[in-house]
Design goal:
The protein contains 12 helices and 8 strands.
Amino acid sequence: MHRPPAIVAVAVATAAPLAAAETEARAPRTHKVEAPGVVLHVADSGDGTPVLVLSGGPGFAGSHMRVVAGAIDDDHRVILPDQRGTGESAIADLEAGEWSIARSVADLELIREALDIDTWSVVGHSWGAILASAYAAEHPGRLDKLALVGPAGLSSEFWPTYNENIMEALGQDGIAELQKIPPPTEQTLEAFGEFMREVNQAMAPAMLADDTLTDQLAAEMSEDHFEPRVGMLMQGALQSFDLRESVGAFEGEVLVIRGDQDPIGPEVAGEVTGSFRSARLETIEDCGHFPFVEKPETLNRLLAAFLAD
């Protein structure tokens, strides 16, 4: 079974632990939202204008965007969901579920309705940027602003260039390490999921500009934080989508942020920016696919300014 590499998205907490009183004061509220085939776990912190923050993968829990969430919840109400099948939104039988972009968009709308939010802004990373864009196309009237961090394109046409850039960034030594990963001995989703976990960990150097962060990034792809089977189940949808025309329905402000060494490539970011009616592109220097890992202060400054009322 051949599958392209999953789009990975992860955030690493870098702030010092909060004092006990401050931790208690800022402890997120939690919600359980009923959706078809899953109960969605949603963290809700801060006050002010609501901002939905979407992790990537597909397969990462919402906690992987905690650096971004923590940077903006002083001024905003931050909604941080575990997308279906991830984190505390686990599904016992993943193969029995519905895996599509449309289903994921519908999950977000259920969350908005359950939390009684009229409109919100959305921040999405990688796959989360695809999902945020799809939501903007389907529910443009429910969205105030849209921030896309390391967007993985508005159509499945991004895959070939992304894969080529990954291989080039890995180089011969990195490719040799990938080839050492033994293929699954069982033809099961669980076995292929563990195989893809190791593949994503081995690809970590190609996703970063600073290779000293490789081990830190790879360690975040643990069983506690990453469910690679979700990414595998979403691959069908990710091989055949095109949002380039439909996102024109959203007339609000859009900010596209990319690292200058992101393997997804500058052409993709340019196309994403040009597909919206009102969008601008910010490029972070010496940064790969994970600005919240490599350049969190720069990313948080850009987001705070963009989301300000």
